[in-house]
Amino acid sequence: MKKSRGRTGRKRRRKHLQDFVDGANCSHQLEYIKLKKWLKDRGLEDSNLRPAQFCDTGRGLMTTKALQAGDLIISLPEKCLLTTATVLSSSLGGYITKWKPPVSPLIALCTFLIAEKHAGEKSLWKPYLDVLPKTYTCPVCLEQDVVSLLPEPLRKKAQEQRTMVCELYMSSKAFFSSLQPLFAENTEAIFNYSALEWAWCTINTRTIYMKQSQKECFSLEPDVCALAPYLDLLNHSPNVQVKAAFNEQTRSYEIWTNSRCKKYEEVFICYGPHDNQRLLLEYGFVAMNNPHSSVYVSSDTLLKYFPPLDKQRNAKISILKDHDFLENLTFGWDGPSWRLLTALKLLSLGADEFTCWKRALLGGVISARNEQQALNITAKICQFLIEETQHVLLQISQLKGNRENLKNHLGLVEALRLEDLKILQKSAEILCDLNVPTT
Q1: How far is CA 115 from CA 172, 185, 195, 197, 198, in A?
Q2: Where in this chain does the record put each SET domain (predicted)?
Q3: Average pLDDT, stretch 143-152?
Q4: In this structure, what CATH number is given to the domain that contains residue 208?
């Protein structure tokens, strides 16, 4: 009898362990124990969510009970949220209200994060700061060697992101200096570029949308960002639907799920219907098999398939530019986008067809020749992008062997490029089914 019970017990334990295969519960770790106590002191009631480490997504939250559509995932009291009101009620408040021209709500939040991180043990926000990432993988943090391997449209946005953060730092240096009376150390050492980059990434990747009333002490940029401890451990999935908003009655930020989730599975929320380039740019990760993913065709790639000898070439380019048809031209899981095909149809208009450009822009059929030429060039562009992507993947593979310090960042770009390759190969199949010759 005893033997039999032991076997059943082992089976039960195996079953229980099986539930945790995908995610290792991290609730016992000291940083999470301290965070939960800190949140409880601020009014957070214990939920069914537990911090865990997952194979595919890294750190996230698992549920200890099955969730049904319509269930409340989390309700985070207002006292737990970090907003510009939090900043103004701190020792920074007086300096912000006096400073002219007014600082932006973004700089106020960045300044607070840097100051609190510097305060260390003395910070009231230490339990939250301790679980924030030490480093980020947004393009602004990537080495130039890695940025150069990004697809062209994303590479351009990555450079713009870096320039914007640099300008933010330079334009805030005088304000940072004004805070010197609050610190024993030189403010230049505390509020340096890397500190601002970290704070900016923290806000850009982790804040929830929460509209604040306009305050005179801030510049006119919208004050809509709030940091939400614990809640910000929830990872993104493009395949779930949630409802998220601040509840004025309960004075809490609430997230309700429209999807089911099994016991001990990771709970996901959706940051929006973003493609992988946007996810990498704004959040520093990519989602595999993302239904919203696209491969962008740059205007340079588009135009190199049309001869400069075409007398109407410049007029066609002007029309596309005026009607915003040189941006957001893509290949997706369902093949070339309508915008891409429309742009190519207009560029393929013969001299005798040029007067029909308005009809072409509206998606009308001009001629069988025009349709066929546009599809032929679409297939050539697709093939060119496949070869380019394969070439970059080879470069990444070689660099991973030589640059150990860049392995994680290279792995991120590799994931993006592999997803791009799958999309392009799928598009090539679709174009092939249309009997399009690629030569």
Answers
A1: 14, 12, 10, 14, 12
A2: 47-272
A3: 93
A4: 3.90.1410.10
Instruction: Tell me how far CA of residue 134 lies from CA of 109, 112, 168, 229, 348, in angstroms.
Output: 17, 16, 21, 15, 51
Please indicate, yes or no, whether residues 94 and 222 belong to a single structural domain of this protein. Answer: yes
Structure tokens at 104: 């932006």
Same domain, residue pair 190 and 308: no
Mean local confidence (pLDDT), 212-225: 92
Express each pLDDT in 95-113 by its tens digit.
999 999 999 999 999 999 9
**CB burial of residue 391 (10 Å; 0-12, 13-18, 19+):** exposed
99 falls within a domain: yes
Q: What's the average model confidence in pLDDT over 212-236?
A: 93
Q: Are residues 212 and 342 both part of a single domain? A: no
In a domain, 131, yes or no: yes
Q: Which of 227, 248, 267 is the last residue of a domain?
A: 227
pLDDT at site 437: 53
Residue 42, in any domain of the structure: no
Within 254-309, residue ranges assigned H as helices are 276-283, 299-303
Q: What is the rounded distance in angstroms from the CA atom of residue 270 to the CA atom of residue 238? A: 6
- Give domain status of residue 353, yes or no: yes
Tokens 């309508």 -> residue: 338
Lowest mean per-residue pLDDT among 62-66, 378-382, 400-404? 400-404
The last residue of one of the domains, among 192, 227, 262, is 227
Residue pair 310/331 in contact by the 8 Å Cβ criterion: no
368 backbone dihedrals φ, ψ, rounded to 5°: -65, -35
Same domain, 334 and 423: yes
Is residue 77 reached through a cis peptide bond, with omega within 30 degrees of 0 on the bond before it?
A: no
pLDDT grade, residue 331 (50/70/90)?
very high
- Give this prediction's pTM: 0.88
Whether residue 11 has pLDDT greater than 50? no
> What would the pLDDT profile of 152-205 be if each residue is shown by its tens digit?
889 999 999 999 999 999 999 999 999 999 999 999 999 999 999 999 999 999
Q: State the Cα–Cα distance between residues 373 and 353, nearest whole angstrom.
A: 13
Number of domains in the chain: 2
* Helical spans, DSSP H, in 309-367: 313-322, 338-347, 357-361
pLDDT value of position 435:
65
Name the residue range of residue 114's domain: 82-227
Distance CA 330, CA 424 (A): 10
